[in-house]
Amino acid sequence: QLVESGGGLVQPGGSLRLSCAASGFTLDYFAMGWFRQAPGKERESVAGISWNGGNTWLADSVKGRFTISRDNAKNTLYLQMNSLKPEDTAVYYCAANLDLSTMRNVRSWGQGTQVTVSS
């Protein structure tokens, strides 16, 4: 099970840190990622990270503002989001065991956490 936390309402320019904690299985050997889905839009990939954190990928829309990281000892994935914009508003989903090169073939999903960027 993957459980996201850290979402909420933030003003434009603000920051949030999302966390994704795994229970029932270890994340050590899995590539992981974050996806988001805004109302009326398809789910899109935001960031991905290899099993050991050595490789990361960020969508062009979030480069320079978001950082993905993981702590395998804590079995947790993170997404640091800075300089948030209204267009970042979406439900953010944690994903485990995916193909990092394509950000597809996700085997496990979290339930999602709402991020709203508004003044």
What does it look like?
The chain is mostly beta strands. Helices cover 0% and strands 46% of the residues. The chain has no helices and eleven strands. Strands 2, 4, 5, 6, 9, 10 and 11 form a seven-stranded mixed beta sheet that branches. The model has no long low-confidence stretch (mean pLDDT 96).
C-alpha geometry = globular
Mean pLDDT: 96
Tally of individual helices: 0
The count of strands amounts to: 11
Task: Write down the secondary-structure element order.
Answer: EEEEEEEEEEE
The end-to-end span amounts to: 34 Å
Structural class call reads: mainly beta
Radius of gyration of CA atoms, rounded to a whole number: 13 Å
SS strand fraction = over 45%
Helix content: under 10%
Largest sheet: 7 strands, mixed
Low-confidence stretches: none
Keywords, please?
7-stranded mixed sheet; 119 residues; 4-stranded antiparallel sheet; single chain; 46% strand; mainly beta; 0% helix; globular
